[in-house]
Amino acid sequence: MSDGRFYDFPGDPRKYVSVTTFLGIIGKPFLQPWSAKMERELIRLLAEQGKSLQEILEYLEPKQPYGYQLYTQETSEWGNIIHKAIDYTLKDLKLPKMTKAQRKVYDKWKEWWGAQKFNLIGAEQIVKHVGLGYAGTMDAAVVNTAGELVVLDWKTGKNHYWDHELQNYAYQLALIDSGDDRINGGLLVYIPRDKEIDDSHKLARVNGELIAPVLAALALWRAANKKPWKETI
Predict the structure, then answer these.
(1) pTM recorded for the entire structure
(2) What's the average model confidence in pLDDT over 176-184?
(3) What does each C-alpha distance from 93 to 19, 85, 88, 113 come to in angstroms?
(4) pLDDT at residue 72 is higher than 80
(5) How many CB atoms are located within 10 Å of the residue 104 CB?
C-alpha cells in the first residue's frame, strides 16, 4: 500500500519512502524562471477573461494557487489518464474514459508499443529495497529483442531531466536487491502531446557510480526529515 510518500508492506512495520519523494530533495533552480513565467501567463489569462486590475489583485492573494500550481495540476491529471490507459492496455483491461486529445496521444503510444516487439514482464509493479528502505512503482519491465531485461518509465512531458534517470536507477537497484539480476539497463519513453515519442534515452545497467547520487539524495532526505532507517526489524 502507498499513500504517495511511503509504502507499507504486510509483516513489515517500517515505512518505505517512495523514490519520487526522496529524489524531491534535489534542488531544481532552473524551474524558478519557469514558475515566474507561469504566474505571468495566469495574469494574462485573467486579463483576457475581462478581469479588472482589482479582481486580478484579489485573485493573486496568498490563499489562491500560484500559476505554476494550476499548470502542474492540469498536466498531472493529463499524465495520470495517459499512464492509466497504458497500464490498462498492458494488463488487458478496459480503457478509461479519455478525451479526443488524450486518445490521440494514447494511440501514438500504442502504435509505438506495437512496433517494439517487447516481451512484457510486469506493469505498474511495486519494487522495494529492503536494506535501504525505499520503494516505488515501475511503469514496466520488459525483455527487448536483444533478450535484455529493461526497466521502462513513461513520461508524458517533453523535457528530459536528470532525476528521471536517477528514478530508473533506483528501480533497477531495487529489482536487483530482490534477487532479479537479469537487469541490463533502462529506457525513458517521453510521450508529449504535440510531438513524436522520444525513446532515445537509453540507460546503462545500474552500477556504483550511477547509483551514488541516488544514495546521496536518500541520505540527505533522511537527515532533513529525521527519518532514519533500521536495516533490521
Answers:
(1) 0.86
(2) 89
(3) 27, 9, 5, 16
(4) no
(5) 12
Residue 6 lies in a domain: no
Q: pLDDT tens for residues 96-144?
A: 999 999 999 999 999 999 999 999 999 999 999 999 999 999 999 998 8
In a domain, 212, yes or no: yes
230's CB contacts (< 8 A; 6+ apart) are 14
Cell 504486510, residue located: 10
> What is the average pLDDT value for the chain, to the nearest integer?
90
Whether 111 is covered by a domain: the verdict is: yes
Please list, in sequence order, all residues whose beta carbon lies within 8 angstroms of the beta carbon of residue 100, skipping any fewer than 6 positions away. Answer: none
Q: Which of 180, 120, 104, 107 is nearest to 152 (CA)?
A: 120
159 assigned to some structural domain? yes
Transcribe 129-193 into DSSP letters: ETTTTEEEEEEEEEE-TTS-EEEEEEE-SS---HHHHHHHHHHHHHHHHTT-TTEEEEEEEE--S
Where is pLDDT greater, at 227 or 73? 227
Domain carrying residue 181: 14-225
What is the distance between the alpha carbons of residues 206 and 219, in angstroms, rounded to a whole number?
18
At residue 97, the 3 state secondary structure works out as coil
Question: Of 24, 22, 53, which is closest to residue 161 (Cα–Cα)?
Answer: 24
